[in-house]
Specification:
single chain; Ubiquinone biosynthesis accessory factor UbiT; SCP2_sterol-bd_dom; 39% helix; ubiquinone biosynthesis; alpha+beta; SCP2_sterol-bd_dom_sf
């Protein structure tokens, strides 16, 4: 059977832009900061009435992709079998999850039992944390990030996120470090 011909690689969208425009866009993206915003109250009321499983499964999928790659499994061992809850305050989301033998999974809240750790913040603050625009300590001491329950678990989560070498990850993904 003859080998299939290889097609030339199409140019990336950034390669189609003139050099100075490409540089200006790259600089604008490098300097980009998430604006202050909150989810409108009417939308939050609607979201809070919707099933929480789809966003919980999205969170679990993202955590499982990171597990073993950028989140060290052995460091997170104390989370095993514990019930964690993430509350997105302005969006009305409550995401229940935990760490099992095969990775992160959805946790079903037991009647009358509180989660072992609850982490609460606004949508904007969680995004800023994920993009490394804000430091967890800054958000915590300004009371924009709240942890309730087992504070040792909270410190473990915070210290694990702080220990991730985000610049190395960006380099592996071919992204420019800021």
């Amino acid at each position: 059977m003859p080998a299939l011909p290889t097609l030339p690689r199409p140019p990336l969208p950034a390669e189609l832009l003139p050099g100075s425009l490409r540089q200006r866009i790259a600089q604008s993206l490098a300097d980009f900061r998430i604006p202050d915003f909150t989810v409108p109250t009417a939308l939050a009321r609607l979201i809070s009435r919707l099933p929480q499983q789809p966003p919980t499964h999205a969170l679990i999928a993202a955590l499982n992709l990171a597990l073993g790659r950028i989140l060290p499994r052995d460091t997170l061992a104390p989370l095993g079998g514990r019930h964690l809850q993430m509350r997105v305050l302005d969006a009305g989301l409550t995401l229940d999850f935990g760490l099992g033998e095969r990775g992160f999974r959805r946790a079903v809240p037991a009647a009358g039992r509180k989660p072992d750790l609850v982490i609460s913040a606004t949508t904007r603050d969680f995004i800023a944390l994920a993009l490394r625009e804000e430091d967890p300590d800054t958000l915590f001491f300004s009371r924009r990030l709240r942890m309730e329950g087992d504070t040792d678990l909270g410190l473990l989560v915070k210290n694990t996120l702080d220990a991730v070498d985000w610049d190395s990850l960006k380099a592996r993904l071919g992204l420019r470090a800021r």
